[in-house]
Amino acid sequence: MSDVSDTNEVKTRSFTIRLTPEDQAALAELCDLYGLDRPGSLRRAVRQVLAWKKKLGKSGYFVPAGESEPPEFLIRLERRDAHE
What we know:
Elements: H1 21-34, H2 38-56, E1 61-62, E2 73-74
Antiparallel strand pairs: 1-2
Helix pairs in contact: 1-2
């Protein structure tokens, strides 16, 4: 299912969520971190989590959590016997 019509216009959808005081504080921190408003921060966080999920599935990659633009670097993992 696509949100893009034949005229290449992106359809948007709005929704409402109720936030606890703790969630409101976390969202405010997220807005400060990203330098975006609430809707922009939520959209970026959703995309970022999905991108990280894909990266976490790749063997040997480490992405620091909490980074707005996380660096990527390869970590080579080798199995060793406990006695080595």
